[in-house]
Amino acid sequence: MKKVTLLTGTAAIIAALSVPAFAQTEIATGASATGVSAVDDRITDIEDDVIDDFDRSNDPDRFGPSDRRQGLFGSMSLQYSGSTGNSDAQDLAIAGRVSYNQAPFAQSVGLAIEFGENDDGVKDTEKVSAIYDAQYYFNDRFYAFALGRFTVDGLVDGLDNADETVRDFDEDDDLRRDGFLGFGPGYRVINTQDTAWRVQAGVGVRYTQTGYQDLVDDGSETEVGYIVSSRLYHRFNEMMFVTNDTDFLSSDANDVITNELGLNFRMSEQLATRVSYQTEYQSDRAIRTDNKLGVAIVYGF
Question: Rounded distance, CA 146 to CA 33, Å?
Answer without folding.
Answer: 49
